[in-house]
Amino acid sequence: MRKLVWFLFIFLAGCVGIPDHVTPVKGFDVQRYLGLWYEIARLDHSFERGLEKITAHYSLAADGSLRVINRGFNPTSSQWKEAVGKGSFIADADTGRLQVSFFWPFYGSYNIIALDQQHYSYALVCGPSRSYLWILAREPRMDASIKSELINKAKALGFETDKLIHVRH
């Protein structure tokens, strides 16, 4: 039993990690991050596979945690898919690094690794490994030069940017 508890601790801790040599943004302001974000591009993963028009909405919950609503449209079934999660800071609130759970007690890391800190109009986010990457924006379209800059940054950090899925809105 003791080994099982230790294994679960290690497994769960690994889910809130950050890839080697990847650094979350500092000077993060959660109040400015709140609201609606459009997914511009992502690396493939099962929980968004086949979806279009993907958005994430962030708000503060009564207990001070972050409420996350991810939503996407499945064109095959003509239905919306929605997941509601809860997030909290891993380190201090000044660092763009959170843990988010859509299925308690399992948490995944949400690492903001690039951010328009002047206007909070775009963000580059990764998970605990280089298998998870998202480009987000406040509008469903992103300026091509900014998108290219974010893709180049991700590529320099070792993400497989040639496998990015560019989301239809």
Give a description of the structure.
With about 170 residues, this protein is an alpha+beta fold. The chain has a single domain, classed as Lipocalin, CATH 2.40.128.20. The chain is built from three helices and nine strands. The protein has an eight-stranded antiparallel beta barrel. A hairpin with a 6-residue loop joins strand 6 and strand 7. It is globular and about 40 Å long. The protein starts with a helix and ends with a strand. About 30% of the residues are buried. The N terminus is likely disordered.
Could you give a short description of this structure?
Helices cover 18% and strands 39% of the residues. It has 169 residues and is of the alpha+beta class.
Per-chain topology:
Layout (H helix, E strand, L loop, with lengths): L1 H13 L15 H4 L1 E8 L9 E9 L5 E9 L4 E11 L7 E7 L2 E10 L6 E5 L6 E5 L6 H13 L8 E2 L3
